[in-house]
Specification:
9 helices, 0% strand
Length: 194
């Protein structure tokens, strides 16, 4: 790999670290904000004599469509090249960190989890931490670029939620009320009492 490709790899690795950190920050905020939004919209409905149970019952199909139940699934690789690189690097990690060869069991579990989640940033962090050399190539740089785009898409998805928008409202009650009204309109086509 040329010096330019190596520098590009380092740049992409730092960029992936940044975006992954941003995603984790947003997800941490949303853990609380999802609960706060749920409580706020329920209280809003109670305060405004909106029968939320009836709305849920009358719109069950639409609610199920818009708010699907969480399903735990194995993440699939987008293409065989990504999978090949992940597994190649994972094998290097296993040779050094597997408990059967005297390695660090916790770090090995993190690597296994990162492979399952196809989280390349975590894999690269483990390699850096344990001085595991990675064969750099233009293909690897392309995989990093795809990872960066995937993380950015996840960030955009998280930021499009009502919970995130509630977070942005801060203490502004009018903002929160307008948000709940939008939520009720989208989910139930409810526009208030006439």
């Amino acid at each position: 790999m040329s010096k330019i490709q190596a520098k590009r790899f380092k740049k992409l690795q730092k960029e992936l670290d940044y975006w992954q950190s941003e995603l984790e920050y947003i997800q941490e905020i949303l853990k609380e904000e999802h609960i706060k939004f749920e409580e706020y919209h329920r209280q809003y409905c109670k305060d405004n004599d909106i029968d939320l149970n009836k709305l849920n019952k009358d719109n069950r199909e639409k609610v199920d469509q818009l708010i699907p139940k969480p399903v735990k699934k194995e993440t699939q690789f987008e293409d065989r090249t990504d999978e090949k690189y992940f597994k190649k690097i994972y094998k290097k990690i296993a040779r050094k960190l597997h408990p059967d060869v005297g390695g660090d069991e916790e770090e090995f579990k993190k690597a296994t989890s990162a492979l399952r989640e196809k989280n390349f940033q975590k894999i690269l962090d483990i390699c850096s931490k344990h001085a595991i050399l990675i064969e750099m190539s233009e293909e690897l740089n392309k995989i990093l670029e795809k990872q960066i785009e995937n993380v950015k898409q996840q960030i955009n998805k998280e930021k499009s939620t009502y919970s995130w928008k509630m977070h942005l409202c801060g203490g502004n009650k009018l903002c929160k009320n307008v948000l709940v009204q939008q939520f009720l309109k989208q989910l139930f086509n409810y526009e208030g009492k006439k």
